[in-house]
Amino acid sequence: AAKESGRGRWARYTPLLGEHSRRQLAIEQGLRNALERGELMLHWQAKLDLASARITGAEALMRWTHPTLGPISPGEFIPVAEQCGLIDAMGQWALREACRAGTQELAGLTVAVNVSPAQLLSGHFLDHLRETLAVSGLEPGRLELEITESLFMEDAEQALQLLRSIRQTGVHLALDDFGTGFSSLSYLRSFPFDTLKIDQSFVTELLSKDQSRAIVRMIAELAATLGMRTVTEGVETMEQMQAVRAAGCDEVQGYLISRPRPLAEFQRSFEAEAATKVAG
Ligand code: C2E
Ligand code: MG
Ligand code: MG
Ligand code: MG
């Protein structure tokens, strides 16, 4: 966050900069042991299919509680893990745990896992994916990997080959945060995505800006033409859900449906909760 506050502020708040660096260092050091100490967890957030009004899937979101700093958001620790080369091991753990849950507590649902470019391009991702699927026994079609556009910035050709190989295992691919980044429509044509996740930023503008409504409608139409499903992220109100539905999106995710929750809690509540929220 300090990086975004601009040059003038850095100069004025030098003591805070020191504090910021100390925190960064603590996060970096803490992350090195987080996995083995069992400090990482997955929380699960529902995906609601609008046509059937049913929860059809769940996304795994990583959570970390530092022994002294307390809970740290993925927005803060994932970039650090990427920089320190720790994301690969952490991501492998998340994939294993998600596949395991997919055959047990979450049987019947599609499980989605976020994967960083550094993890995907590690060279052994595909082997690890196949092994994880085999060990867990999860049907590949019930796993979806969520990937952001930043993957294409590294090496688009290599990324394309990898995504095709992943797709050949039967695992599904979702393009996350679509509409942010440097979205190039040509990627949609050549990359084998099953799902487009429309970024939360469109939802917040959906009711106030005609342009955002037009863009979401266009994305939904384009996705349908290309044979992809659309999921809209960050739906917080009933009004937003209705606008998203009117724009032609297939699925929604957001606090309106369910916040990310620990596995046991998610499992207990998802059916009942979905039924009441949609009825309104
Ligand atoms: P994402 O994959 O786009 O996940 C959506 C984020 O929006 C999550 O934040 C979720 O908690 C939040 N969210 C969901 N519904 C709502 C809503 O209605 N309103 C608002 N305001 N927010 C909502 P979270 O859990 O903090 O994760 C942030 C990002 O960190 C994720 O964005 C993803 O890019 C990354 N991340 C999380 N877990 C993992 C992981 O296991 N591996 C990797 N590589 N990245 C992860
Ligand atoms: Mg995601
Ligand atoms: Mg997203
Ligand atoms: Mg995101």
From TrEMBL:
Residues 24-274 form the EAL domain. This is PAS family GGDEF/EAL protein. It comes from Hylemonella gracilis ATCC 19624. The chain holds residues 493 to 772 of 772 of the full protein.
